[in-house]
Amino acid sequence: MAYPRNVRNRYKQAAAELRAPFWDWAATSAVPPATVPAFVAINTPKGRAQVRNPLSGYVYPPAAFSGEFGNFRPEFGPTILHCPAPNRYPQSANALLRAANLKEQVYNSFVYSQSFEDFSSTGGNGISIEQVHNTIHRESACGEQFSEQDVAGFDPLFMLHHANVDRLWAFWEVIRPNLASFRRPYAGHSRFTTPAGTIIRPNSPLQPFFAPRGVPHTSDSVVSFRKFGYSYPGLEDGGSQEEQRHHAIRHMRELYGETQDAPRHASRQIFMAHMNINVEDIPFRPAQIHVFLCGRHAGSIPVLSKPSHGRLHGTVPLSKAIKECRRLGRDPRKHTGLRIIGPGNREIPISSIRSLTMELEDFKATPPSSDEELPALGPRHRVPVDMEQSHAPIETEYEESDGNSGGAGDETSDESGGYQQDDDY
User: Fold this and answer.
1) Do 246 and 279 lie in a common domain?
2) How does pLDDT run across 171-207, given as a tens digit for each residue?
3) Residue 352 sits in a domain of what CATH number?
4) pLDDT of residue 332
5) DSSP code per residue over 128-139
6) Cβ atoms 234, 173 nearer than 8 A
7) How does pLDDT run across 305-323, given as a tens digit for each residue?
8) 3-state DSSP of 359-415
9) Which residues are CB-neighbours of 34 under 8 A, at least 6 positions away?
10) Is 244 in the same domain as 286?
C-alpha cells in the first residue's frame, strides 16, 4: 500500500526527519505532555480515528500472568499506572518534579563532580546523574511501578527518560573527555551473566549487547556516542575537540546553569550535605530520605528497591537552607535533621539505621570569564555532623530565592575557610 500522492511528500519528509525522542525533565520539570491523554487521534486509511494513547500506560499481556514467560506477579496489578487516586497525573507528578530542583542537580553534577565515579553513580562521592535519574523514577509516576526496577521498563516513560540520561552522558563525554569512562576495577553486583563479586573492568563484556560479528560490547567500546551515528542538539560535529567542548558547555549552561546577570567577579561559597548509607538497612523501600537544616527542608535523596544491598551516596545542595541557619543564628553542624519515608508514608526512625552517616561540605566556586567554561573550584572542606530525627514538615519552597537557577551557594568575597571556621555562618 502506497501513501496517497497528495500527502506522500509530507510523509517522506517526516520519515527523513524522524528521531528518537528524549524527555529533558531538567529543562521542563514536568512529565511529557504526550503521555497525558488516554486517547489520541491518528490518520488511518479510513480517515481520522481515536486510538488508545500508547504513551499513557501499559497493560501486561494475559500470557504474562499465565506463566508463559516465567513467574510474573507484579504487586501493583495488571496495568502500568501514573499517579492513581488520590494523586492526579500530570498535576501531582509535575509538583514533585518541580520540588526536586532538577536544573540545579544536573548543573551541579557537571560542575562539581571530580571523577567519573562522582558523576556516574550513587556509589561515588558527589551529586551523580544516577541520583537525579532515581529521582525521576520515583517522582514522575508518584512512586508507582516506574520506581520498581523489575517492571519500570514497561512504562512508556522509561525510554523517554533513559534517552535523556544517554544525552546527558554524551554531554559529559564532550565536556569531560578525560573522565568519560571508569578506570578502576570494582566488584559488581549480581547480574544476568555474572555472579556477585565479579571484578568488572573497562573491557568486561556488557552482555547482552553485541557489536558486529557477535563481539560483546564493553565499557570502552561504547564510550563514544558518535561512533553509533547519532548526536544531540548542542553536540553537533565540527571544529576541534576543544571547540566542541566549549559549545557543549555553553549549551549546558544556557539550559541548566547560572543566570546571565549573575556577577562574574564574585566567588560563591558552595554548601552541600553528603549522606552515606547501606541500602539494606532501610527495611521498607523504595524510600525517600529528607534532609533538614535548621528546621527547614533542604532536599531529598531517593532510595529505590534495588540494588538489594550496597553503599549509597547522596548529595543535597544547601544554599537556601544555609541562609535560614544564618537568619536564625544557628550552626548547621548542630542542627541537621533527617526523615526517612518508606512506602505508604511509613516513617522509618533514623536511630534504626546504624550505617547512616553525613558530612557537610563547603568550597568556593569562581564564575568563569566566558559562558564556554566551567567555574573554577577552590579547596573543598568536609566535616562530619551529628544527625537528629526531624519531625519538621516536608516543605519544598523557600520565601527567598538566590536568583541563581544553577548554583548551590552564596555570592561572597570572603576569603575565609569553610566549615572549619565558626564565623562562616
Assistant:
1) no
2) 999 999 999 999 889 888 888 888 989 999 999 999 8
3) 2.60.310.20
4) 86
5) -HHHHHHHHHHH
6) no
7) 888 889 999 999 998 888 8
8) EEEEEEEECCCCCCCCCEECCCEEEECCEEECCCCCCCCCCCCCCCCCCCEEEECCC
9) 53, 55
10) no
